[in-house]
Design a protein that fits this description.
Length: about 140
Amino acid sequence: MARTSTYLNFPRNTEEAFNFYKEVFGGEFGNDGIARFGDIPPSDEMPPMAEADKNLVMHVEIAITGGHILMGTDAPESMGFVVNKGNNVYINLEPDTKAETKKLFEALSAGGTITMELQDMFWGAYYGSCTDKFGVNWMFNCEEK
């Protein structure tokens, strides 16, 4: 089922932030709890991960008010990320089909910047990201098989 959520990037303190949100909103972390960068399968296409980054949060999510899902990740500098106000918030779209994902991606990235082309990812989703021509950051995560 399609859904929209808010995705937050943090400079190495996602776990602290989400434990705070858990206290505020109650509930439990979704999926299987906190996924760590150390959980990423090794790949010849990626350089080895810094030992200090392996315990950082790759993904966490929690339902807040009205069923809205708040998601987050650490953005390690060693992976080329620099968190600034403005690049720390994404609107995350999860369409039902790859066709709808591609249509929305193409429309929102027109005149903007593609930060990651749509592609099949190791977690089983069709994923990509862009910044639209107004500076709004978008993520796309489709789990159609």
